[in-house]
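Quick one, tokens below. Sequence please?
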């Protein structure tokens, strides 16, 4: 398939699946792109996609970026999901340990240079793992942040050079939680403690009533994304 044919396929799929269910898009995605993977952060959207994917294509790889500084509740959610579905998430680690990072760039880099820390512990590892695939699936939604407002359900990810599927792009937070409750899905208990968006422990705080759902990420910095979805 040449570039023009791929672009046309993506454009048509984005149009066709805009009004269809996430499950329908997932089914098409894994059939059309067998060498596909799901990125899981163990947040609400991603546990929904894990459940859907287990019903559609249980052998499809699901990976997570292990920054070594996730909340304990996040690791426990991972373990519960693995046990429940009988699967093994692919662990993707940074090239540098926390100790090596501190030696090279100083202690608690996330406090002084969060973009650099995200690049080391998230973006670079993601770049490495995605080189093994032709397409990837994410849990981003349009109403999560202005930077995601124009996300299509199917698009070409220029940054990583592969097809990107966003099955929940048109869903609201209410849609996500309705699915979780209706299907009794395992989810991160931090969501019940005012953490609508959960990242690394040092860079995530609870969100107060009336605040933007992503206000708890990198509080005090002009930063709203870790760089995975730009």
């Amino acid at each position: 398939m040449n570039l023009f044919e791929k672009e046309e396929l993506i454009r048509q799929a984005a149009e066709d699946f805009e009004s269809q269910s996430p499950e329908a898009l997932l089914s098409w995605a894994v059939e059309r792109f067998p060498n596909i993977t799901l990125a899981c952060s163990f947040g609400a959207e991603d546990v929904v996609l894990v459940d859907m994917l287990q019903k559609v294509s249980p052998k499809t790889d699901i990976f997570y970026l292990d920054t070594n500084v996730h909340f304990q509740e996040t690791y426990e959610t991972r373990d519960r999901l693995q046990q429940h579905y009988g699967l093994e998430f692919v662990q993707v680690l940074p090239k540098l340990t926390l100790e090596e990072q501190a030696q090279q760039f100083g202690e608690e880099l996330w406090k002084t240079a969060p973009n650099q820390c995200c690049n080391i512990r998230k973006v670079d590892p993601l770049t490495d793992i995605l080189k093994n695939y032709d397409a990837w699936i994410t849990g981003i939604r349009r109403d999560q942040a202005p930077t995601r407002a124009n996300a299509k359900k199917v698009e070409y990810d220029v940054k990583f050079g592969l097809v990107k599927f966003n099955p929940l792009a048109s869903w609201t937070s209410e849609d996500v939680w309705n699915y979780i409750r209706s299907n009794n899905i395992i989810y991160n208990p931090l969501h019940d403690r005012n953490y609508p968006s959960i990242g690394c422990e040092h860079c995530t705080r609870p969100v107060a009533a009336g605040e933007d759902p992503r206000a708890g990420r990198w509080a005090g910095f002009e930063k709203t994304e870790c760089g995975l979805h730009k």
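The first strand starts at residue 36 and ends at 39. Strands lie at 36-39, 61-65, 90-92, 135-137, 154-157, 162-165.
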